[in-house]
Specification:
Structural class: alpha/beta
Number of helices: 8
CATH class of the largest domain: Alpha Beta
Distance between the termini: 12 Å
Number of strands: 6
Strand content: 5-15%
CATH topology of the largest domain: Rossmann fold
Number of domains: 2
Shape: globular
CATH superfamily of the largest domain: HAD superfamily/HAD-like
Length: 245
């Protein structure tokens, strides 16, 4: 793998398709949140955090409606606030949008699922020993995912390999910025107080890796399940056991 391992002081990891199977996200987490979204909004609409999330959805909807997209209408009557937020949230999920307020609401729904034992986070078998190894080497480990920081922490705290959060130093989500924008990686480097070249970003998405490299980070493309790279300029990783052994 073509990167300067001696310079790496932190490993920044994507989740979906990198530490965690894509099917767990799309086949378990998203359907769980979708089927419980309306009840959650109805039951918790008066809570400040949830009310703030619905207001953020309303503002996002107003911006979305000025573009070419056609989201469901937002009904202005206060008593229709939950109906509007629910319809728009479903539309965002169908579009697979990386909406920050949606991700926050999903994280709160998943919190209840993890607490009840209905949900258990999935990670690839090579992930826990790799996290422990890098920690022992004195390297820092951070996560950058479109899911909220809360959702990230829940997944690793309630993983099928046990609580992995003691092995993770920092979490970043879309409040840091879009994953395909170089500026997001500049902000992460600043937050970690590390030179960009000392951070290795691992993801399965080429556009994210391109943005990280443009910001000066080192990069590796994670390809699981025998997948092959397509016109990628990034070195390829298939097993975390091979990374910084």
């Amino acid at each position: 793998m073509a990167f300067d391992s001696a310079a790496i002081r932190a490993v920044l990891l994507d989740i979906e398709g990198t530490t965690t199977p894509v099917d767990f996200v799309y086949g378990t987490l998203f359907p769980y949140a979708r089927t419980r979204m309306r009840d959650f909004l109805e039951q918790h609409a008066a809570q400040p955090e949830v009310a703030s999330g619905m207001e953020a959805l309303r503002r996002e909807h107003a911006t979305e409606s000025q573009r070419d997209a056609t989201p469901p209408p937002w009904l202005d009557a206060p008593e229709r606030r939950v109906d509007s937020a629910f319809a728009y949230a479903l539309w965002l999920m169908e579009q697979d949008r990386k909406s920050t307020p949606l991700k926050s609401l999903q994280g709160r729904i998943w919190q209840a699922g993890y607490a009840s034992g209905e949900l258990r986070g999935q990670v690839y078998p090579d992930v826990p020993p790799a996290l422990a190894r890098w920690k022992q080497q004195g390297r820092r480990v951070a996560i950058f995912s479109s899911g909220s920081v809360q959702a990230q922490q829940l997944l690793f705290r309630h993983s099928d390999a046990g609580d992995l959060t003691p092995l993770i130093d920092a979490y970043f989500d879309t409040t840091t910025g879009p994953k395909q924008h170089p500026e997001s990686y500049h902000r992460i480097a600043a937050a970690l107080a590390l030179p960009p070249a000392s951070i290795l970003f691992v993801s399965d998405v080429t556009a994210e890796l391109d943005a990280a490299r443009a910001a000066g980070l080192q990069t590796l493309q994670c390809l699981r399940g025998g997948a092959t790279a397509t016109r990628s300029a990034h070195a390829v990783l298939q097993d975390f056991g091979d990374l910084l052994p």
